[in-house]
Amino acid sequence: MVKLNKIYTRTGDDGSTGLVDGSRTGKQSARIEAIGKVDEANSAIGLAAANLETGPHTEALYRIQNDLFDLGADLATPCADGDFTPSEMVLRIVPVQATWLEQAIDAFNERLEPLTSFVLPGGSEAAARVHVARAAVRAAERAIVALADGEPVNPAALAYINRLSDYLFVFARVLNDNGASDVTWVPGANRPRDS
Fold first, then answer.
1. Contact in structure between 36 and 42 (CB atoms under 8 Å)
2. Phi and psi for 71 in degrees, rounded to 5?
3. Lowest-pLDDT range, 46-60, 75-89, 107-121, 148-162?
4. Are 27 and 17 contacting, i.e. CB atoms less than 8 angstroms apart?
5. What is the distance between the alpha carbons of residues 48 and 122, in angstroms, rounded to a whole number?
6. Residue 119: strand pairing partners
7. Which DSSP state fits 119?
8. Using CA atoms, how far apart are residues 89 and 9, in angstroms rounded to an integer?
């Protein structure tokens, strides 16, 4: 159980922040950049959820938000030896979390027409908000991959964040009348015909 009695500690006034293992790192580090991008994505998902009627879709987004807090905890726990086994004291993303996203994507896809072009990020306001969240998740993924270039990162975490952007893309199509209201890309549509 997490208990937060005091929000400010003053320990970060020097530009550093504490990690789960007790070590400190600079707030500009690749690890903190990745954690921050996950937080931004989580906030964008919260905004998307706030735009929907309470029901199965919002419950799914709340589940994902919880998973993103797990992901933040995972990233905040360095692992030099590459053993990303979760324990009572160490929270890690596990493969079943990405599997849940895959199953949800498959269920969504059963009711969607196949795409014949790329989809522009828009349509309904609800879908547009989910596309904004998808773009934020992609930014988080890039930050996590950048961290993985220099330090070990849980492979299940990488799989989860990659799958999440796929989930949000398909979910946005569901919110666009199961794809019927998607706005599709027309390559070169605004160029003069003789160019």
1. no
2. -65, -45
3. 75-89
4. yes
5. 13
6. 184
7. E
8. 23
Q: What angle do CA 175, 185, 142 make, to 5 degrees?
A: 75
Q: Which residues pair with 183 in a beta bridge?
A: 120
Closest CA to 31 of 154, 168, 166: 154
Contact 24, 18 (CB under 8 A): yes
Which residues are paired to 16 by β-bridges? 26
CA 3 to chain centroid, in Å, comes to: 25
Closest CA to 48 of 141, 164, 161: 164
Query: What is the identity of the amino acid at 134?
Result: R
* Residue 17 or 24, more confident: 24
Angle, CA of 36, 150 and 143, to the nearest 5°: 30
Say if CB 168 and CB 131 are below 8 A apart: yes
Two tokens, residue 113 = 């027409």
Check residue 82 and give its pLDDT: 78
Q: What is the mean pLDDT of the chain?
A: 91
CA-to-CA distance for 70 and 93, rounded, in angstroms?
Answer: 6
Provide the pLDDT for residue 195. Answer: 58
DSSP string across 60-94? HHHHHHHHHHHHHHHHTS--TT------SS-----
Q: What's domain 25-181's superfamily in CATH?
A: Cobalamin adenosyltransferase-like (1.20.1200.10)
